[in-house]
Specification:
Elements: E1 7-11, H1 16-27, E2 31-36, H2 39-53, E3 57-61, H3 69-80, E4 84-89, H4 104-132, E5 135-140, H5 156-174, E6 179-184, H6 193-196, H7 200-203, H8 214-227, E7 231-232, H9 236-247, H10 250-260
Helix pairs in contact: 1-2, 1-8, 3-4, 4-5
Length: about 270
């Protein structure tokens, strides 16, 4: 059965939201191509999902901050001649601190992962989906992409705002080809994201009602893409925050964000 099943490609699949996308697609009978930098974590994830769901799992170790990685990954997928039905662009991270506190190369690598690699993977995989007349692309953005900018983590919000607009544009272009594109915009999510960027102690002071689990985020995103949504914000609280961000005068909203930015951003 698994040899005939469609394939889902998931970047950043070793933990958090990416790992839960892998689990929920495996539960739906998809074979998986799991992409991340950490071979040991990918191996453990693949073994567990193969055992639990009797699907095939293919591990591909790539560092998407390297300019050639997206092209090499796409070429591997095309050469495999598999029916790639789903592409989940989830790989990403945050860079705490002010803009000038990091060397330029760190910013260049960040933009490569957060924007360039996503654009290139989509560019190279879309022709395959067009030929199949079916496909789903889920780009994991963030509620931060719908909010005003704030001091610290200077490129994170702008990169997610770009990803939302990019996904919207693709969704309209590809609708005639029966390819669905979704920008998924979670808010605060329990994962190792904040551990990696050194913000765990800071964000742990935020109230529990602001947080969602990765399982909840993924389940909400999959339901949204099946409805044909182009942009989806999981969670009622997050949707309320986004609504207020659209309704409040921008000057007032910027003042409110500026007053609380140290609760969720490292500025120094």
């Amino acid at each position: 059965m698994s040899a005939q099943a469609p394939w889902a490609v998931i970047t950043g699949a070793s933990a958090g939201i990416g790992a839960k996308f892998a689990a929920q697609y495996a539960a739906r009978g998809f074979n998986l191509v799991l992409v991340a930098r950490r071979h040991d974590r990918l191996t453990a994830c693949a073994q567990e999902l193969t055992r639990d769901y009797s699907i095939q799992s293919d591990i591909q170790v790539f560092d998407l901050s390297q300019a050639e990685s997206a092209r090499e990954l796409a070429q591997y997928l095309l050469n495999s001649r598999r029916r790639i039905e789903v592409l989940v662009n989830n790989a990403g991270y945050g860079m705490p601190g002010s803009y000038l506190s990091h060397p330029w190369q760190a910013h260049a690598d960040f933009q490569q992962v957060m924007m360039n690699s996503i654009a290139e993977l989509c560019y190279r995989i879309i022709p395959l989906m067009r030929a199949q007349r079916s496909g789903t692309i889920i780009n994991v953005a963030s509620l931060a992409g719908l909010m005003p900018g704030s001091a610290g983590h200077t490129l994170y919000g702008p990169s997610k705002a770009w990803l939302i607009k990019f996904s919207e544009s693709l969704s309209f272009e590809l609708a005639p080809d029966h390819i669905r594109v979704l920008a998924l915009c979670p808010g605060f999510t329990y994962s190792e994201f904040h551990d990696v960027n050194g913000m765990r102690a800071q964000v742990s002071r935020l109230p529990a009602w602001l947080w969602m689990t990765p399982e909840e985020v993924v389940a909400s995103g999959l339901a949204a893409v099946e409805r044909g949504d182009r942009v989806h914000i999981p969670g009622r609280i997050n949707r309320m925050i986004a609504l207020l961000a659209r309704m409040l005068p921008q000057r007032l909203l910027r003042a409110l964000v500026g007053r609380r930015e140290r609760d969720f951003r490292s500025i120094d």
